[in-house]
Amino acid sequence: MTEKIGVLGKKSAQRTQRSGVERVVNAPLPTVYGEFRAIGYLDHDRGDEQVALVYGEIGTDRVLTRLHSECLTGDAFGSQHCECGDQLAAALRAVVAEGSGIVVYLRGHEGRGIGLLAKLRAMALQAEGLDTVEANLALGLPVDARDYGVAAGMLHDLNVRSVRLMSNNPRKREALVEHGIEVAEQVPLLIPPCENNITYLRTKRERLDHHLPHLDAVGQLS
């Protein structure tokens, strides 16, 4: 009898195991950009805690939206190796200027999904002359391991059907469409390059198909 109960208990646990994204909390978040709502989610599939910063009354269609991949070095430390921190700030300012919008901050996306320590190892290889794609491959890692299914799930939960997507990355658009979110417009989020990130940005354009037309006007920085 005890063995049977144990088996039934396992089956019951399997039936109750959750998947997908679950809204957990909605809290006011005053920032230097404006008063947002921080809507926290749990990704049951990966175990990551996620957050959508919502400004104003967003509606359902053509919502100005940014999917921002976590970047500790850029977002928190102001690294000039990438443009991530500036893009995050620009996106937050843009939704405030618009009067409404969403910035989905995607944790677990550090280093295009390879993690913080691997990203730092890749940065060390880039300092030796490899580009960002070559560095990941040299470490035996994927060039881009990010998944945007959780972002789409969060947008679905917020009743968003279509977005004006602030991004230069065509893969983000493709991923949202694949997960049932219409991309009515792709809005460029172009940050002026500096000496420390111009090579990185050119690699993103030439090898990762990012739309960065402003680099055409930039000569060799030194």
From TrEMBL:
Active site, renumbered: D144, R146
Keywords assigned by UniProt, alphabetized: GTP-binding, Hydrolase, Metal-binding, Nucleotide-binding, Riboflavin biosynthesis, Zinc
Domain GTP cyclohydrolase II, chain residue ranges per copy: 22-188
Xref: InterPro entries: GTP_cyclohydro_II, RibA
Pathway(s) annotated for this protein in UniProt: Cofactor biosynthesis; riboflavin biosynthesis; 5-amino-6-(D-ribitylamino)uracil from GTP: step 1/4
Domain of life: Bacteria
Residues holding Zn(2+): C71, C82, C84
Cofactor: how bound: Binds 1 zinc ion per subunit.
Membership in a protein family: Belongs to the GTP cyclohydrolase II family.
Protein name from the UniProt record: GTP cyclohydrolase-2
Species of origin: Streptomyces osmaniensis
